[in-house]
Design goal:
alpha+beta, five-stranded mixed beta sheet, 26 strands, flat
């Protein structure tokens, strides 16, 4: 595209988009002059430009430049750090080539733009010059490969004076650089490997010796330089200039912030950052990092030091020292992220905020971030209403001030949250804490915010959200957080993890209010019981009961105590406790107690299964949504299964649905569902049911059919049962679903053969033919290929396409092929060929005269005799009569067989001719073929199909 043409295209599009708000057309490199990042005044500007090869979408502005891009196949996700959905109407109304659709979705502390590429389109992404960009390549276009860059030779020229020296590095392309001082040396680092041509830099004036080194993707220079020599750097295009000695211009352009999502990491904003390069000082021997950046020059003017790292003052780029071995530095576009696997050790976010003066009786911060203090609920003379109103007013005023002051204090809002948690108003406390985070996302790194919110979330049952809060690095080694982790682990069934967490929390448990001491004690006792530590459980139960507790909390501890009695073999004592607790008007303790009582009485056989099922059905609806409901459902389903009530068992198990899928016992419940369904339809449990009832049960729970060979075998077993009782339509429907939706390759071809056979048995040859043709494939096993060939010939026979059927059979001389060929010859009235094949199909059966002929054998013999008579082959008919006459007396139709074997015998008897013609018309081998197919299906099932139950 010419520059003139591109510029006109940009101008036309710009005019068209003048009213599009924050979506504007951004010129691209190679299309028009790049607009400087400083020209963007909106926090987020989406700019679009097009070339002949691709379309670029840029996200610029203060917010846009910090966007993150991920590409997964045809899906491109751009995450922007604003909860206000950006204007993407331009992309929706007139999507660029290669873009199929675009939508926005809200995420925590931000918004995601989801770009779906057209089929065959590709995308690349990057960051540069204050913007994040995505290049969309239309189908058929591919990103141009990066130019191969060999090791260049870079000329270095020095211009010394008495008190300074200026070094000029002339590259053949733009490169990133970092320039900073470490002690008595200045380091200059470039992000490309090169050989330095130093003859022009032998005299460095007031500076000392210069040593350079080349790595696989960098070049570094160490220059001895007294501390009094200031350092400056500037870059333009591919030329970098470093000055030592004169008064340097103060560096700038780098900003240090905390991670905006509250993670313990630092994010440095530096335009054009290219890569982090780890170096070792040859004199000192320590390890440090340089982060290079493209021109123009920008550096860090101060010095930022934490426990884990030090960001050095720099004239260009960044220099970072660390005493650790696992510091991670990621440079991408305009962002440099510094972290460690376990998180950086940083001061709490609240340390940077202003302090506030609060009343003496305001709830004070606990010694540990996730600790709840009993005194937080004290209201004094004001009572609850007065105290709540006072704290709420202070929090509101503080929140209003925080709207215009990012360093406004948070003490009043945290004090309100403490009061609410101490008073048991956990939903309200979560709302206050969420508002703090919404106003200042960095407060997610505040240990108390995470700790209090985790405690409140656990108290209301939001365990998944609580686990996210407890996973924050700020709470990693906190003992109060370990108490909540242990309590959470018990609810998740992680008994070993619970005991480990409670052990780490032992020194702070007594600092919690009595109610939580008892709850932690009971939970720890349950974990001890589950891991076999009876003595520890007994001591923990005694500790929990020693607290000053309301009746409801005491009953919860008594439940754990009853479990202890059970494990000790004191069943009578356990049953008495369960029954006593079960009479309480509190379903959360009464339902699990009554469940255990039913289990004990069932085991003792003092309660009938019918009465037990009735009680469990009532419990199932009294308390829902947690592990207790799961246990009730599992016990009820096992009871139904033992009574042969399969439908009721499956219905009970399925009733949990997806509501309880996140609970610890959900996996076991799904395993129970699969086990019951497998027992019914794979292991013969449903064989005693009437076929229609079995089919209805299968359809009602069809979603339980496992993926793979077992599921396919279930369907085929059920189909065979239906075939055996002539329910051919239903069998065909089952097999058709397998062929069209679940199978492919050889397995599909095999089941398609079964389906075609069913269609032929149901006298639907066209459907059979379509099924076989739709599942043609190569490299089939020889027996399967032969079976499909014979079935195809039979389908063509049914459609009257005799010659085509014979072509399909070809040279196949198997028994089934010859049987089908005989049918074709019969239809074509080729009597001699038909008679010979029918006789051949009977084989040497005539030698066993003691066993009567089957219906199929008798029909074949009749057809062979009639065919020989109509072909006037007296010799063949005489042979047939001599071999098979002994079977006439025991035949199902002795008169018909006698007439057929007698034949015409050269006598022109009209009555005999009519009888022969009638035999030819009514002799039916189709029924025999159907019986043979049913027998084959039975044998595939491993034996006889169970007889259908009466019903």
């Amino acid at each position: 595209m010419s520059g003139t043409k591109a510029t006109k295209g940009v101008l036309r599009s710009t005019v068209a988009l003048a009213a599009a708000g924050s979506v504007a057309l951004a010129p691209l490199m190679g299309v028009a002059q790049e607009a400087p990042a400083s020209a963007v005044t909106e926090p987020l500007a989406i700019r679009i430009g097009t070339t002949e090869a691709y379309t670029r979408i840029e996200f610029a502005g203060v917010v846009g430049a910090r966007s993150r891009v991920s590409i997964d196949g045809r899906t491109v996700v751009v995450r922007v750090g604003t909860t206000a959905a950006p204007d993407i109407s331009r992309l929706k109304v007139d999507p660029p080539a290669g873009l199929s659709s675009v939508e926005t979705r809200a995420v925590q502390n931000g918004t995601e733009l989801v770009l779906t590429l057209a089929e065959g389109a590709t995308a690349t992404q990057g960051q540069a010059d204050g913007a994040v960009w995505v290049n969309l390549y239309r189908p058929g276009e591919t990103p141009a490969p990066a130019a191969q860059q060999g090791t260049a030779t870079v000329g270095v020229r020095a211009a010394p004076s008495a008190d300074s020296v200026t070094l000029t590095f002339t590259w053949d392309r733009p490169v990133g650089a970092a320039v900073f001082r470490r002690g008595e040396a200045v380091w200059i680092v470039f992000d490309q490997a090169a050989s330095l041509d130093m003859p022009g830099a032998k005299d460095l004036g007031p500076a000392g010796e210069a040593r350079w080194a080349r790595g696989p993707d960098y070049t570094s220079i160490r220059i001895d330089a007294p501390r009094n020599l200031q350092v400056g750097a500037s870059g333009q295009g591919s030329v970098w200039t470093v000055t030592l000695g004169t008064r340097a211009v103060p560096a700038g352009g780098v900003r240090v912030d905390r991670d905006e999502e509250g993670r313990p990491a630092l994010v440095l904003t530096m335009a054009g950052a290219t890569q982090a390069i780890w170096l070792t000082d040859p004199l000192v021997g320590d390890r440090f990092a340089a982060v290079t950046a493209l021109a123009p020059g920008k550096g860090f003017g101060g010095r930022r030091q934490t426990v884990d790292l030090t960001v050095l003052p720099s004239a260009q780029g960044l220099g970072i020292e660390t005493p650790t071995d696992d510091l991670k530095i990621e440079a991408s576009g305009d962002r440099v992220r510094i972290s460690r696997p376990g998180g950086l050790t940083l001061s709490p976010p609240s340390a940077a905020l202003e302090t506030a003066s609060l009343a003496e009786d305001t709830p004070k911060k606990a010694d540990f971030p996730a600790l709840i203090l009993e005194e937080w609920a004290h209201t004094g003379e004001d009572g609850f209403i007065g105290t709540h109103r006072r704290l709420q007013q202070g929090a509101a005023e503080e929140a209003q001030a925080a709207g215009g002051n990012p360093r406004a204090p948070v003490e009043a809002r945290l004090a309100l949250a403490r009061f609410l948690i101490g008073s048991g108003l956990h939903y309200e406390a979560i709302g206050v804490l969420n508002a703090i985070v919404d106003t200042s996302p960095g407060m997610l790194g505040e240990a108390e915010v995470r700790g209090l919110r985790a405690a409140a979330r656990i108290a209301i049952g939001r365990t998944d959200d609580a686990a996210v809060d407890l996973a924050g690095a700020a709470l990693a080694n906190d003992p109060s957080a370990h108490a909540w982790r242990g309590y959470l682990a018990v609810q998740q069934g992680d008994w070993t993890g619970a005991r480990e967490s409670f052990a780490k929390a032992s020194r702070v448990i007594d600092d919690f209010p009595p109610v939580w001491r008892a709850r932690f004690g009971a939970a720890h006792a349950e974990a001890a019981l589950q891991t076999g530590d009876i003595e520890a459980a007994r001591a923990l139960i005694a500790y929990a009961l020693s607290q000053d507790l309301p009746a409801s909390e005491q009953l919860s501890v008594r439940l754990v105590q009853a479990h202890l009695f059970q494990l000790q073999g004191q069943t009578d004592r356990a049953l008495a406790v369960y029954k006593a607790v079960g009479r309480a008007p509190l379903d959360q303790v009464a339902v699990p107690a009554r469940l255990e009582a039913v289990r004990i009485e069932l085991a003792r056989k003092t309660l009938s299964p019918v009465e037990a099922a009735k009680q469990l059905e009532g419990l199932r609806w009294r308390w829902r949504g947690d592990a207790t409901e799961l246990e009730v459902i599992r016990t009820l389903s096992e009871l139904y299964m033992s009574q042969g009530m399969y439908r009721e068992a499956l219905t009970a198990l399925r009733s949990a649905g997806s509501r309880l899928s996140r609970l610890p016992g959900a996996a076991a419940l799904q395993a129970d569902l699969a086990r019951v369904f497998r027992a019914l339809f794979l292991e013969g449990g449903a064989d005693g049911m009437p076929p229609i009832q079995a089919l209805g049960l299968f359809y009602d729970f069809r979603e339980l059919t496992p993926i793979g060979a077992d599921g396919d075998e279930m369907v085929r077993r059920l189909a065979r049962r239906l075939i055996d009782v002539d329910l051919l339509d239903q069998a065909a429907e089952l097999l058709k679903h397998q062929v069209e939706n679940r199978l492919e390759g050889v397995a599909q071809a095999s089941v398609a053969a079964d389906l075609a056979a069913v269609y032929l048995m149901d006298r639907q040859p066209e459907a059979a033919l379509q099924t076989l043709w739709a599942t043609r494939t190569t490299l089939l096993p020889t027996p399967l290929a032969s079976e499909r060939r014979v079935l195809e010939a039979r389908a063509l026979l049914g459609l009257g396409r005799f010659d085509h059927a014979l072509e399909v059979l070809g040279k196949d001389t198997s028994a089934e092929a010859n049987s089908t060929r005989a049918e074709i010859y019969w239809k074509q009235e080729k009597w001699g060929e038909a008679g010979a094949l029918y006789e051949q199909g009977l084989g040497t059966r005539h030698t066993d005269t003691d066993t009567p002929l089957t219906r199929d054998e008798e029909n074949r013999l009749l057809r062979a005799a009639v065919a020989y008579s109509l072909a006037e082959d007296d010799a063949a008919l005489s042979r047939l009569s001599a071999n098979w006459s002994p079977f006439i007396e025991k035949a199902r139709s002795p008169d018909a067989l006698r007439v057929a074997l007698a034949g015409l015998n050269g006598i022109e008897d009209a009555a005999t001719v009519r009888e022969i013609a009638a035999l030819a018309a009514r002799t039916d081998t189709f029924t025999g073929w159907v019986e043979r197919m049913k027998g084959r299906f039975r044998n595939e099932d491993g034996g006889e199909v169970a007889p259908a139950a009466a019903g």
